[in-house]
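Duplicate of #3305? Posting structure anyway:
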């Protein structure tokens, strides 16, 4: 029975939607048949949709509150919206390549036999969770208003904070992605659960660290 299950996994390609319902199975399929370009294209499109909602959620009042002069707000708003849309397409590509390179270096030190393509496919499929979170949060912001930088599903959104800050990084879809990263590293890269969870937690803590630095820079006195 187990042999038949393994054969079925080998024959089937991993599915993006399966990351929500059966991620363990998808990681096994990725190990046998890694896919990159079609999933990455779909995820880039989803990110672009989410960022489009973010761009539509931006308004002059938000920029003025951030210190943009009123006589420049229209120009800045237009530039910001275009930048947000372009970022939506580039972000998943750069993000998956950077995280993949770092993870590959770590797991190779741990003597993992995982290939660059397998690990890149794993990270690409995990990004469907972030894409779903982005579309959900930005769709809600577009509908009800508020600062699009603050995710409704984050602690900052739950506590009605004015700034995203560190609490904005502690967010449901981010935690979900971290859990899947640990599971994926264990299943696809075939490293120990302890090391897989250590890598996932470090990545998550680093993201919080970047948020903390951003908050400190925003609060620094201007010269």
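Output from current build:
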């Amino acid at each position: 029975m187990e042999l038949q299950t393994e054969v079925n996994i080998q024959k089937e390609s991993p599915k993006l939607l399966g990351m929500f319902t059966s991620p363990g199975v998808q990681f096994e399929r990725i190990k046998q048949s890694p896919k990159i370009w079609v999933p990455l294209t779909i995820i880039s499109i989803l990110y672009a949709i989410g960022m489009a909602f973010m761009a539509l959620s931006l308004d002059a009042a938000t920029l003025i509150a951030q210190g943009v002069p009123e006589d420049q707000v229209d120009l800045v708003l237009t530039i910001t919206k275009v930048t947000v849309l372009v970022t939506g397409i580039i972000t998943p590509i750069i993000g998956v390549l950077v995280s993949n390179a770092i993870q590959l270096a770590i797991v190779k030190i741990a003597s993992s036999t995982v290939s660059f393509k397998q690990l890149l496919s794993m990270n690409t499929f995990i990004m469907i969770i972030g894409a779903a979170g982005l579309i959900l949060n930005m769709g809600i912001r577009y509908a009800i208003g508020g600062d699009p930088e603050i995710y409704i599903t984050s602690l900052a959104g739950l506590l009605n904070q004015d700034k995203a800050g560190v609490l904005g990084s502690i967010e449901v879809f981010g935690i979900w992605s971290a859990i899947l990263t640990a599971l994926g590293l264990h299943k696809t890269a075939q490293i120990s659960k302890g090391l897989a969870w250590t890598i996932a937690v470090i990545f998550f803590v680093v993201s919080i660290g970047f948020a903390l630095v951003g908050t400190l820079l925003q609060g620094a006195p201007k010269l």
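Confirmed duplicate; merging threads. The two ends are 70 Å apart (CA to CA). The first helix runs from residue 2 to 11.
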